[in-house]
Specification:
6 helices
């Protein structure tokens, strides 16, 4: 899996574009500026947007190629990006954060519940989580996402895996993706924001 992502992020250009995810942007813009943790951040599009808005950003991904691309992006924008290479279960910080944002963070099924529980430790009490990922009904669509249904989400799974979260809203919806070359076309996604 790591080899797949290293190869993808080493390609010319940005796999998912340089603009932030639309739902992430919409929800982040509603919040007072603070600190944000961005796991599985890839090439840095959401991190760069948050930095431009004045957020203190801590990002990580398990792909060294992703980090290289993200730091080059931040350097081009003259922004200081804190970014590290880490597996999700190996990630640690002595800080907690006002916001945890998971955008298309599809962890392997055998560690997913543990990964979400682990990451929620770093969200402050009353902190906000922003989430968007592909739904199980995305399987068969050509607009992106894992081809393994166990890595996709249902509303019921979200409720179980984030059972300490008070959801502001939680919905499965169809969206038209236009994010780089690998997220293109109609897609089925699950979105939520909530408070710890």
């Amino acid at each position: 899996m790591r080899d797949f992502w290293n190869h993808r992020y080493a390609e010319e250009g940005f796999a998912y574009g340089q603009l932030p995810n639309a739902y992430f942007k919409q929800e982040l813009d509603k919040l007072p500026v603070g600190s944000i943790l961005l796991p599985a951040e890839g090439e840095g599009r959401n991190a760069i947007y948050a930095l431009k808005k004045g957020w203190h950003v801590h990002a990580f991904d398990f792909s060294p190629s992703a980090m290289i691309k993200a730091l080059e992006f931040a350097n081009d924008e003259k922004l200081p990006l804190q970014y590290e290479v880490s597996d999700v279960l190996s990630f640690s910080s002595d800080k907690t954060y006002d916001v945890l944002a998971l955008c298309y963070a599809h962890f392997p099924a055998n560690i997913r519940k543990e990964a979400h529980k682990h990451l929620l430790r770093y969200l402050k009490p009353n902190g906000t989580i922003i989430f968007e990922a592909f739904a199980k009904s995305q399987l068969g669509n050509l607009s992106g996402g894992p081809k393994n249904i166990d890595m996709l989400f249902s509303i019921e799974e979200i409720k179980k895996e984030f059972n300490g979260i008070a959801f502001n809203h939680l919905t499965e919806t169809k969206v038209e993706l236009n994010e780089g070359k690998y997220h293109q076309g109609e897609a089925s996604v699950i979105r939520f924001t909530g408070k710890k």
